[in-house]
Write a structure and sequence with these properties.
By secondary structure, the protein is mainly α. The protein has eleven helices and no strands. The longest helix is centred in the N-terminal third of the chain and has 41 residues, at 20-60. The radius of gyration is 19 Å and the shape is globular.
């Protein structure tokens, strides 16, 4: 039996075949198994984070100042100071890094559902263990910095659409990064590099799968917005299905 490293090296060298229909069906069947549990987790987490954000804003800026700040005329990015923009970008980046283990836990939940293994609320938080947390945190940080750097350089061309496409490409190329960390114990840089290489073998099929998935998730916005929390789990079932279809498990 090939080792993990040998299997992945073979995929890097020889590529692989991927069926759009097979991967999507796998993801959707998996989604039906986790949608209620994962959807409620997303909903409760969003409510708790919203309450926490409100408390922090209330103590930091005061309610009256915050109400003044969120007026439409004050939300023009051109009016923001460089200091505020740096704080904002830093805060968003830090938040993304801190919640990345939670999203990794949803992918793990999808795996448990696939193999008929019982999962719990704790499953969504199991990757806050230091051995995984450090790699997930660093990978998210590096991808975010790369994304912002490339988008900023491309935006200098004066065509914002190019910045969006560059950001989309980086996100696509990293679709296997988190699964490689949590299922193969890859370090951050190794996972990013391997994901880039493997995704580049079948970019159009993977782009099609993720595009359809994102469109499905967006439909949740039209279901009183709360539906978004119950369509979003399909995205993580798709991440899992892509990993399983390309690399699989021993």
């Amino acid at each position: 039996m090939k080792s993990n490293k040998d299997r992945i090296q073979e995929l890097k060298t020889n590529g692989y075949q991927l069926s759009f229909e097979a991967v999507f069906n796998l993801a959707f069947e998996n989604y039906k198994k986790i949608v209620v549990y994962a959807g409620l987790l997303f909903l409760v987490s969003a409510v708790l984070l919203g309450m926490l954000a409100f408390v922090i804003i209330a103590f930091t800026f005061g309610i009256e100042n915050f109400q003044e700040f969120i007026k439409p005329e004050n939300l023009d990015p051109n009016n923001f100071s460089d200091e505020f923009l740096m704080i904002y970008i830093g805060s968003v980046t830090l938040f993304s890094c801190l919640v990345s283990p939670f999203f990794a836990g949803i992918i793990k939940m999808a795996h448990c559902a696939e193999i008929d293994e019982e999962f719990h609320v704790s499953t969504a938080f199991q990757y806050y263990q230091f051995q995984y947390f450090k790699s997930l945190f660093l990978a998210t940080l590096l991808i975010t910095i790369l994304n912002m750097g490339v988008s900023s350089v491309v935006d200098l061309s004066g065509l914002p659409i190019l910045g969006f496409l560059a950001s989309l490409a980086i996100s696509l190329l990293n679709v296997l990064t988190v699964p490689l960390i949590i299922f193969r114990d890859f370090k951050a840089l190794e996972a990013i590099n391997t994901s880039f290489t493997l995704v580049s073998k079948q970019p159009l099929v993977l782009l099609g799968l993720l595009t359809v998935t994102y469109l499905f998730c967006i439909t949740g916005v039209f279901m009183f917005f709360i539906g978004l929390f119950f369509t979003l789990p399909l995205l993580y079932s798709m991440y899992y299905a892509i990993y399983k279809s390309i690399i699989d498990f021993e």
